[in-house]
Fold each of these.
Amino acid sequence: MFVFRVLLISVLMLVAESTKRKSSNIVLIVADDLGWNDISFHGSNQILTPNIDLLSLSGKGLGRYYSHCICTPSRSALMTGKYAHRIGMQGFPLSNSEDRGLPTNEKILPQYLKELGYSTHLVGKWHIGESRTEFLPTERGFDSHFGHRGGFLDYYEYTLDEKWATGTVTGYGLFKNKTAAWGVEGYLTDVYTEEAKKVIKNHDKKKPLFLMLAHNAPHSANEPAIVQAPPEDVRAMKHVEKTGRRIFAAMMKKLDDGIGEVVEALHNKGILDNTVIVFIADNGGMTSGFKMNYASNWPLRGLKMTPFEGGVRVPGLIWSQDFKTPQNLWNGYIHVTDWLPIFMNIAGAAPPNNISGIDLWNSIKANEDSSRQEMYEIDDRTGFASVIYGDFKLVTGHVTEEYSDYEGGDLRGIIGEPPSYNDAIEKSKVYGVLRKIGKPVKKIDYNLRKQIEVKCDRKDTDEICYPNKDKICLYNIKEDPCETRDVSKENPDIVVNMLQLLKVELTKTVPRTDPPLASDPRSLPSLHNNTWDTFID
Ligand SMILES: *[C@@H]1O[C@H](CO)[C@@H](O)[C@H](O)[C@H]1NC(C)=O
Ligand SMILES: *[C@@H]1O[C@H](CO)[C@@H](O)[C@H](O)[C@H]1NC(C)=O
Ligand SMILES: *[C@@H]1O[C@H](CO)[C@@H](O)[C@H](O)[C@H]1NC(C)=O
């Protein structure tokens, strides 16, 4: 009897051990200032992104993925699972010379994952604090950081220019953990791809891996060379009519190729089958004006830094080898704050309380509707507040009008025939990997792209609603994804309800605390061996 019981207990323990979930690896790839119309998955053949498209087609392309409309807020939300305005990180992005950062009492994603046994690595952009050592990624849960701490870098010199009242200030911005990374050479997108591959290759498989690869691409670089790509890649984009857009297209090719290489590296390491891959943009593209990069949110309205769809409805996808259906779109609402609870679920843990994010992992896997109903975009410095609830979006306050129009239409020009989509797909690294792991690549329906494509019946004579301090605008973003018609008069009850939602959310808003100095002289690169290093310790 005793022997039998011991045996039974050991068998039960064995079963428990084998059913205990093994935490999956998480690879989170972030593109910078990437617009809706800058990937071929959204329907255009002007810029082919076969690796991104195939991950969407064999995973889940996210048709209604929303982010904050600016880098620093969206990265703050990504790291904390909280709306940027709930932690005072909303609005205009951080400069390198500003003493401000994500509050250090916030526990962030790599800290949670590290506690769960993950090794945690950041390759690329940070942009949520760099004036003090305590703000740096390696002080906040990342085992390693290789990349830039500020908004962007020159793709070859790795410098960032700031315009101060005294003139333009230049500094070197590429770091390895806490010190400047000297001796690096090459095109920055390639440099980051190689570094990400190195992290994967050197990873100890006994632990789960969290790799965040936050590319500089396709963000603009310093003036006047605002878009940069290797000449041979630009030459390969002869079909793109406008010169700036042609260089941008080459930047996208390098980004997409790099993603293919990362997927291949995961396969070669033998961990792809237990890895969830997410690819997102941090906010919409900047077609003109401040830090313009020739990105295009067409046909969506508005640019980065606005609450219109072009600023917030951005490319996104999630991929896992376990997704059963060969191809899918997931059209539910999903917000940048949702990644933290989703990743916690994937890691096998419960998400923290008191965050804005919702764990949508099971709904996404099962192709169920999203439980997310509402999303807020609040920028008390520019002076707007907007809410999406169900089919509707309400925008109030002051928006930057010059960034609130329909741009990028003129960037679509093609000379002659664009390159073949199918050829690009079949030559891509992800295609090769999918074949090797037995995915039915031949059965993938590329026409799924047409389902996600946004079409608008906008006429240039339409009267567009611009909100201001006396005027609200209400759009039905499901029927009118281009926000051309104000429907506030027809829907007074919806207006009242949504204003009430905003009123409540505004009471939870933590005001931005700007430092007394915008261009703090202590940050001057010439005081730090010409680098943008920490300057207060
Ligand atoms: C929840 O978060 C808010 C800021 O987003 C903070 O003010 C509040 O103290 C937090 N509450 C708890 C119980 O942690
Ligand atoms: C960063 O520091 C860690 C140890 O704290 C080290 O293992 C890692 O190699 C460093 N990374 C880089 C890129 O230097
Ligand atoms: C200062 O910068 C140069 C490159 O300009 C570099 O070679 C050198 O190692 C740096 N010195 C220190 C102390 O970091």
Amino acid sequence: MPDHAPPAVHAAEHDRSAIRFLDLDTPYRLLKQDILRAMETVLDSHAFIHGPPVAELESALAEHTGAAHVVTVASGTDALYLAMLAQGIGPGDAVFVPAYTYCATVNAVMHTGATPVLVDVDPDTFNIDVRDLRHRLDTLDRALRPRLIMAVDIFGLPADYPALQALAAREGLLLMADAAQSFGASLNGTRCGRLAPVTATSFYPTKPLGGYGDGGAILTDDAALAAHCRSLRWHGMDDSRTESLRPGTNSRLDTLQAAVLLAKLRLFHGEHAAREQMAAHYAACLRDSEVRPQLIPEGYHSGWAHYTVRAPNAAHLADKLDTAGIPFKRYYQQPLHWQPAFRHLAPDGGLPVTEQLAKEGLTLPMHPYLTTGQVERVCAVLGT
Ligand SMILES: *Cc1c(COP(=O)(O)O)cnc(C)c1O
């Protein structure tokens, strides 16, 4: 099927098949011939590091998102870390991070030497709560310099960038997006990659645009910042690689991953549309239930890395899904500030919404190859 037809979303014959939490198999089967050919070209060329597909992918991602500059790197974590380094984030700096996120966001901040300041999240969107952020700014330890807001687009939903941008401008702060889960998302027509001045995304295999290994990218309209990141990913050298300008590291996306991602990108539009349809179907099926899906405010389109709901009886619903053989996850069930590595970051009074979501969050199957019948089967088990 090398003609890249959009996925057959409603193929009824799939309805009785086992429901997958994620589907890495179908896109592989759809693209297998293309991917093998692209990989063979790379192998034949021996251009394993920064062969032509890397620059091609960067152009394609720039075109896809509208970002002026795309710098691919070895992982989403490196994208976060290197973009912060390039902006001069380091010891003594406070970086504001939502507490309801994957540990990589906080790890990347700590790796720069800066101090993560955990911020609670909104009970409906599950994204950084701008009011709590205001409070953390007002009560910040005097020894720290407030420098950067690191918003996270949790489960694929963009954070409230207009409000964050306004606050950042008022307070003289930098703003970044951890868009590891939100490639393909948009807000009022602006795509993920241009919603914040600097965006970091991930190509980990299970992310909306997933490769067959690790990978990530920094997206920005700032040419100087992009050049700095390009230097950092290649040992801090200049473009011609004759001079070391600064201490850097090795964080290159390898050519094989770029070739795979270029092939996967061709399916992306149809895949994202299918995710949106399945999300809409979940929302319709769950409308009269006690289960509350992540709120998608007006003007927002999620990348739908995951479909997450909150329910007071999440543990009971999890048991029911288990019994019915339906896969699910309970992401961030152990809040970061309760874990050994980050316990010292717990604020007085805790982070009540994050702690509540840890108890009530339930992530249901979501991928472009679900069928409406499968979504209905999941919702039926949830008791609707
Ligand atoms: C996956 C993820 C990352 C890290 O990306 P990697 O490519 O695995 O390094 C960072 N932040 C969030 C929110 C993620 O989900």
Amino acid sequence: MKKQTKAIRIQAERSQNREHSVPLYLTSSFTFESVEQGRAIFAEEEEGNIYSRYMNPNVDEFVDKMCMLENTEDGLAFASGMAANFAAIAALLKSGDHVVASKALFGSAIQILSKITPKWGITCTFVDGHDMDEWEKAIQPNTRFLFCESPSNPGLDLIDLEAIAQLKAKHNLILAVDNCFATPVIQTPADWGADLIIHSATKYIDGQGRVLGGVVCGREDLIKEIRFFARHTGPSMSPFNAWVLSKSLETIHLRMEKHCDNAYKLAQALEGNTALINVKYPFLSSHPQFELAKKQMKMGGAIMTIDVKGGFEAVNELSKHLKIASISPNLGDTRTIITHPASTTHSKLTLEQRAEVGITDGLVRIAVGLEALEDLIEDFEQALEKAAAFINKEEVV
Ligand SMILES: *Cc1c(COP(=O)(O)O)cnc(C)c1O
């Protein structure tokens, strides 16, 4: 069966009610037929549900679909993408271990690796993601973990997944890839050799801006260690969120095709707009890693960035004139969203940290939604015209 079919057809076991859509298992715990059965299930001699911090039919169904989509042996769901991120690091590393990570990471991932895990003696070196020599030079005898995001948020920098997987194999490390922007519809890092694939399910996996969720898929032995950590520290996904997310996976292929088509065409329409310094999108030939994008991504993704002439003031003016696009820190919604990373998601970084990953004051991330393309093009063009007029007037004064 094709993945599209499986994403629709994988289901928790049907109950005696013969329901078509999976019921919502809102229960904190499960019952045993006898104390002996409880003993056997706890001793792992018999399979069965125990408690929803450990497992739940809705959560398990969601994880089964994610592992199928990511081509991995096992997986685990979390309350949010950051809970997934943190659990993978905290479960697998110990004091004295070292991480090499790309600089172009989600803001909170940088905070974890630069401020939180160092408290427990886990250190991190940040490198320029596309420079493989930098990755290799940063590896120390105590390095255990490589962490990257491709395409990165918000800079849309790509990491050569084949090259980095070769590097981790050479040094016998664990490679974790945040696959949030691409989704498994566009790229499956496990096929290149990644050991762990991390997602914020809040984004395209939900796809409709409703619930938080996270997932780690990957090698069975590593997931086993993360599962031990998660079961006892409790960052579990709620059954309700799992039910929503599993339903969403039924349409992820369809949604991503339309998202990517809209994003590609909006990027083409805005490229060359005189109000902009540049437009960045992995499948535009002007993207510095266009060839790599074509190699490892089936489609260009749903995120593009524009760098607006005139910085913060111009972006602010643009935002006031957009009639359709929302202003929000989220992405991966049916609704087109603009985000100004310098003042929001990446505002906690220093100026130098922002400059290193190309987050200028004029940079706007556009998470292109599923509205009619013509409406989106018209909306951005008219708002950019007004932003440019505003800036020109300011300059005259
Ligand atoms: C949003 C996001 C996260 C964090 O996920 P949450 O579900 O908000 O905790 C991590 N990585 C990337 C790339 C993201 O976009």
Amino acid sequence: MSTQISVHPKHPNVPFVDLGAQYRAIAAEINDAISKVIQESDFILGREVRLFEEEFAAFCGAHYAVGVDSGTSALELALRAFDIGPSDEVITAANSFIASALGISHAGAKPVLVDVDPYTHTMDVKAVERAITRRTKAIIPVHLYGHPAHMDAVRELAEKHGLIVIEDACQAHGARYKGKRVGSLGHAAAFSFYPGKNLGAYGDGGMVTTNDGKIANRLEMLRNYGQKEKYRHLFRGYNRRLDTMQAAILRVKLKYLDKWNTARSRKAKLYQKHLEDSKVVVPGLAHAAESVWHLYVIRTEHRDQLKEHLASKGLNVGIHYPIPIHLQPAYQDLGYKRGDFPVTEAYADRILSLPMYAELTPEQIKRVSRAVVEFLSAKSPREIPAGADTLRASQIA
Ligand SMILES: *Cc1c(COP(=O)(O)O)cnc(C)c1O
């Protein structure tokens, strides 16, 4: 990701993510951890998996953590552990990574999508209430871009209707809501350790956290052929385990996660400072939320032009996500159409993710911000974020 040829020899490209920089800072520890796993031939559900599960559960303030092979599996298996499947409906947000819906589909249930609150980009809880039917079994709030969803309102609604809440925390390792970590805010939570996430493996990986011992038990069997003891299979489980090698790497990285997240938050403040008076809308932060800034997502009506402009200067940006889930070819059978989720659809054409990672330098942030400000200063007036008045004003704490 970080090895493109520079457009301007004097100004090296600013990569969107720089996993190499992170590795170089901790290379000795990582290499040591990998080498130990190989020397001990402890590859499958080894000691490091158990230790990482304990440490990650403690990090989240949850009783249990069960390592699996991806975030998508974490969502699917969490639903299966609660016996949610065919003929059940599960509500999630239309503007998420496709995997939020795939986890539901793979469990055999039907994804029901809702629009998002225009300020935080997380699920609009009033829309969730309208989407509840007799078949609804669970809600999957997504802590999108590292910003926790409106969990009090989600939980209140879930309690009222007897629904399970499974957090999609795949972008939010370490984020807090009213002082509590995500991963401890629902019946269970799904995490991804895809390399580019705030806590990333060197390959795929995932985790389910829960306070429910029975659910943790079922998850341990679901990921491991449905067995508790070797060669005795209580049901038809899967092979969806977290690798010992990845767990060893993640154990090293977990020690740095708070430090890296604090660094991201400093980057966000710096972007905010540089962009505040420009014509872009900077990300909102709800009063109760402590984001871990997985992505720094601005909005502008001139998104495509701006993206091209930045690319011409070697500044790498992304769009998360250009096609909302309800407009994906993969989900045409759900029967949604353009116009169903106005906020999500409007944002899909306006959102732009700026480079964001702990090693990003103030100079790089300045270069990116300057390029944004200069390009947009000639354009039409600033977009006012619809609905911002209903929540606390943008404040980066
Ligand atoms: C990354 C991600 C997932 C899926 O995780 P994988 O490990 O890639 O399967 C699910 N939901 C969200 C919001 C994500 O960002």
